[in-house]
Amino acid sequence: MPALPTKLPNTGTTIFSVMSALAAEHGAVNLGQGFPDFGADPALLQAVTEAMAAGHNQYPPMTGVPALRQAIAAKLNGLYGAAYDADRDITITAGGTQGLITALHSCVEADDEVIIIEPAYDSYDPAIRLAGAVPVGVPMTQDYRIDWAAVRAALTPRTRALVLNTPHNPSGRVASADDLRELERIAEQHDLFIISDEVYEHMVFDGAAHESVARYPGLRERSFLVSSFGKTFHVTGWKVGFVAAPPALSAAFRRLHQYTVFTVHTPTQHALAAYLADPAPWQGLSGFYQAKRDGFRAALAATPLKLLPCEGTYFQTVDYSAVSDLPELEFAKWLTTEIGIAAIPLSVFYQQPQQRRHVRFCFAKREETLAEAAKRLRQGLRC
User: SS3 for 123?
Assistant: First the structure.
């Protein structure tokens, strides 16, 4: 047997798999991995059945079902005033992760540097390494804002791209208009590509607006905008997303897309196209999750956990300094095995782990699930 090479020699099993397995083993409430424990709209599920019955079961176009691409372009144009062309600029992907990986491979070469804002979702680093490039982590400020002075200090002649994530996983923070304008200046000054992970675009709270790269012409012309229907419509297992990018970037993206996944599940695409005819489901998403956030935060207020700001996504970060001196990973494992609540330590989202005593809970759960989780935390974390 020849030796097996690997492009990711230092990469192990993702923290989400580790914590979900531990939760299952110990019967813990899983607030770790970011998936809902409630079902999708029955109308959307019925639309998939109808699409299959209508014979939409063969290969669709490589770029995606035209009706779905048209619906996405219309939504982006209406939301952000961005003139994306459905035929040239929108590509349907096998989830957000495939979109991110393919976008990176489309615009970076060996030894290019790509800036990631830390804590960074754990797929960014390996995706950059698989492309032969070098991830450069730039930590956020203590209150999880983007440190633009640090970003500028990290730029070198080899910097080729930056990965933006807003609303931000895992912190729950949301980039502001000032953030996007500063990014626009940096990208133009240093001729950078932007890979913008906006899968939580419809989960922004307290009346704030989502600041997409699509709103800013100087960013739009050099950005791959990545989003996901799985997050928006509570169907994470479907793994259907899209990438929006201007013609030259889309052409480069599609050259690789056609030889990796080629295309995406046909009846689901037809169902999503029909479902998007009514904007109410995604327009109501922020209010839906804000109610869950508010209820969960109110329940956690009776614990010694310190609640950090949650401006978007469906994640709540807490500071457990008043509870334990354990490092974050060890605390997350203790919380799972002893208290019966699975969480995600933020330290795993840094190249150089920073022990700040922070863990992340997912509140995309039924009310009874969140109530049981809060009960266990109140009872188990008495100081």
Answer: coil
Separation in Å, CA 196 to CA 79, 104, 115, 300: 16, 11, 12, 32
Edge-to-edge strands, sheet with 241-244: 90-93, 241-244, 223-228, 193-197, 159-165, 113-118, 134-139
Return the SS3 of 56.
coil
Q: Domains (ranges, CATH) in the chain?
A: 15-40+283-380 (3.90.1150.10), 42-278 (3.40.640.10)
pLDDT for the residue numbered 7: 87
Query: Tell me: the pLDDT tens digits for 220-230?
Result: 999 999 999 99
Query: From the CB of residue 330, how many other CB atoms can be counted at a distance below 10 Å?
Result: 12
pLDDT at 378 over 80: yes
pLDDT single digits (tens) 226-266: 999 999 999 999 999 999 999 999 999 999 999 999 999 99
User: Which residues lie below 8 Å from residue 55, measured CB to CB, with a gap of 6+?
Assistant: none
Which contacts of 302-309 are long-range, i.e. CB under 8 A and separated by 24 or more positions? 302/374, 302/378, 303/374, 303/377, 303/378, 303/381, 304/381, 304/382, 304/383, 305/377, 305/381, 308/143, 308/144, 308/171, 308/172, 308/358, 309/143, 309/144, 309/172, 309/173
Per DSSP, the chain holds a count of helices (H) and strands (E) of 16, 13
* Between 8 and 370, the higher pLDDT residue: 370
